[in-house]
Amino acid sequence: MLMPKTRRIALLFNGNKIFDREVITGIADYLSSTRTHWDLFLEEDFRLRLSGIEKWQGDGIIADFDDPTVAATLAASRVPMVAVGGSYEDPADYPASVPYVATDNVKIIKLAYEHLIEAGLRNFALFSLPEARENRWAQEREKAFTALMRRDRMEPAIFRGQSTRAQTWDEAVREQIAWLHSLPKPVGIVAVTDARARQLLQACTLAGIAVPEQVALIGIDNDPLARILTRIPMSSVIQGAQEMGRTAAHLLDQVLHGVRLNDTRILVPPAGINVLASSKHEPARNPHVMRARHFIRQYACQGIKTDQVASYVGISRSSLESHFRQELGYSVHDEILRFRLNAAVDILKQGDCHLAEVALKCGFTSSQYMHSVFKRELGCSPRSYQERLLSTYGTACSAVD
């Protein structure tokens, strides 16, 4: 059997960005599922460097055109290429004569917005990025948000804030807190990235603004690094970046076999939402209950007790229990356990894990106690629950008792 010809392909992406890593993963999936043979060029540290790339003597390129310097550098290249980036409201903003695979910014914002509507919210805002050529994709998300607001006869509330810099960080946080205080409550906020959402979540904590009772927050990217850096688990729209990578690889494969695909544009919709605590808005009429739940969301997995919650709220334990029974129909301890259980479920979804470590991370006193909570609340053991996830999602993970 003749082996397919090996092609030399450059992948011009920044591996420090979750979006770029997911696109690369999709490209790898395409290669592993076909007989396509590519010799891939990436920098050793997976960072995008353009110096000398115009002299690269390869067969093809897949590049992130959200970076305007990439598009400009490759404009005169005669190497076959496929561009990846964000979608544009104006068709003239797409690169000419280059097959282009785009994340659908309109559908991303619409999905996040509708999620907040379903949570019962009536006020909405967007946390964006400063206007700049490299942030064109963020400005496109602003346009999508503005169109939705005006369609629904609301005035768009958009805050860009400052870029992340050490020397202006304190000032940037103060501006974020001032903006948060200016918004009508409760409010649902869409952040254009998970990194931006994480910043705003920190600002809410510093300002004593309850999440999600007063501010329900959702980011974009489903970035695991951003999630682990927040006390309150953060909801996020999952972009279809892996599908974009598979599509881009397929298009380049076709181009290398002589298919003319100039000006081909493919918009890839989001893959869904990872719904976590930051956007699970449940209106609480009682301010003591709202304040208590805000504290529980931050510290439930650190083994807090009902007395500590009551101390934070500033009322007696018996009074707090009475408020919880009247407002929610269950106890403070039940709320703490519910949050720990949700945290354990989230870890079990992620992959290979030892149940004793899961119990410790989620604030259970022992794996046996976690086991009894799972049996009582979910009707199965943690191991059985994870096996159910395996059969449902096909995830390659296992738990060790």
UniProtKB/TrEMBL annotation:
Highest taxon in the source lineage: Bacteria
Source organism phylogeny: Bacteria, Pseudomonadati, Pseudomonadota, Betaproteobacteria, Burkholderiales
The name this protein goes by in its record: Transcriptional regulator, AraC family
Xref: Pfam families: HTH_18, PBP1_XylR, Peripla_BP_3
A single GO molecular function term of this UniProt record: DNA-binding transcription factor activity
Entry annotated with the keyword Calcium: no
Record key words, sorted: DNA-binding, Transcription, Transcription regulation
PROSITE patterns in the cross-refs: HTH_ARAC_FAMILY_2 (PS01124)
Domain HTH araC/xylS-type: residue ranges: 290-388
SUPFAM superfamilies, alphabetized: Homeodomain-like, Periplasmic binding protein-like I
Record InterPro entries: Homeodomain-like_sf, HTH_AraC, LacI/GalR-like_sensor, Peripla_BP_I, XylR_PBP1
Membrane spanning stretches: none
